[in-house]
Amino acid sequence: xxxxxxxxxxxxxxxxxxxxxxxxxxxxxxxxxxxxxxxxxxxxxxxxxxxxxxxxxxxxxxxxxxxxxxxxxxxxxxxxxxxxxxxxxxxxxxxxxxxxxxxxxxxxxxxxxxxxxxxxxxxxxxxxxxxxxxxxxxxxxxxxxxxxxxxxxxxxxxxxxxxxxxxxxxxxxxxxxxxxxxxxxxxxxxxxxxxxxxxxxxxxxxxxxxxxxxxxxxxxxxxxxxxxxxxxxxxxxxxxxxxxxxxxxxxxxxxxxxxxxxxxxxxxxxxxxxxxxxxxxxxxxxxxxxxxxxxxxxxxxxxxxxxxxxxxxxxxxxxxxxxxxxxxxxxxxxxxxxxxxxxxxxxxxxxxxxxxxxxxxxxxxxxxxxxxxxxxxxxxxxxxxxxxxxxxxxxxxxxxxxxxxxxxxxxxxxxxxxxxxxxxxxxxxx
Length: 430
Hints:
Elements: H1 4-10, H2 21-27, E1 31-36, H3 48-59, E2 63-68, H4 90-104, E3 119-122, H5 124-127, H6 132-138, H7 145-149, H8 152-158, H9 168-171, H10 173-188, E4 190-196, H11 200-214, E5 219-223, E6 236-237, E7 240-241, H12 251-259, H13 263-272, H14 278-290, H15 296-310, H16 312-325, H17 331-336, H18 339-345, E8 351-354, H19 356-361, E9 363-364, H20 365-372, H21 379-387, E10 391-393, E11 396-397, E12 403-404, E13 414-419, E14 423-429
Parallel strand pairs: 1-2, 1-4, 2-3, 4-5, 8-14
Antiparallel strand pairs: 6-7, 9-12, 10-11, 10-13, 13-14
Helix pairs in contact: 10-11, 12-15, 12-16, 13-15, 15-16, 20-21
């Protein structure tokens, strides 16, 4: 019978594991946590790997704990960083906490009626009660400086390759994170910590603290950091992070991110970012390889993840928008998509503005194409293009006797002009 660890193994989501963890989880329904510092008001695509681990954890009957770092977020995790993070104040972190809480509710079941409902905590609740003296006496004495300096996150920052070194603030991060594990172990019988491989040093500080202070064993595992086959950073686009909040990254752009991943990456991600069984994944990969032009894996990822994070309505909007972009759509499809998404689809295409009064009276298509918008250079070019049957208004082919009016408006704001398959022009009506 497959267990949680087996699930992570075949999906390529297991890197480091403390011996005995698998046996412990097979024997006991356990509490396990992953920490997320609320350094932004939204999670991003890079957060999906630990989120999916928590979802699998709950699926196998264990209790997932989301620990938001209201305290650790004020310090900044030095792991994988060459420079010190910007310090955030409590008000910002509290605001971020509320936003992230809503996002986690999309992924995990927090229903108290469930046998293993997810739990969301804030480490500020217990860390804020510590004085420096108390923390130094009760916690700090159990972990040596030598132990802390041996961690990669510290060595990289104080070595010869580092220009600025490491502040005492950052140096304390691993000890504070370690105390989180001790606190949860003592107060909630939380026996497992999970996270990305870059967190291994911080995580094992927690297990060591539990061993030294409680004389008991705690367990831990990490997942590999997800990479892209071309060497670029996963979860990034030219404009920056791919966020899970549609106000920071629209559902359409989120959908397009997955549509545009490489075949090699898609074969890896289909295991990590779906709940498909192994035989289903293998079947999809074969179908994909038999007809790569259909981009079966990319479409499955884009559909399932957009639906999971943004819902079916936004998914359908994104699918229609993609069809518009690639010319396989109708005027009805165009008019069913919101104007902001249309502006995103045609970001970078030429645009002009005309008055609603002019449009209300009606404008001959030749005039609109040339004099009113300069989409085409001259009236004669407009007539020639119309004679070639290459002009479209809102994805519908038109002839030289066509009159454009306010009846052609998309959501009372836009008109899409097109010459041929790929030459677009947006008219903004005000």
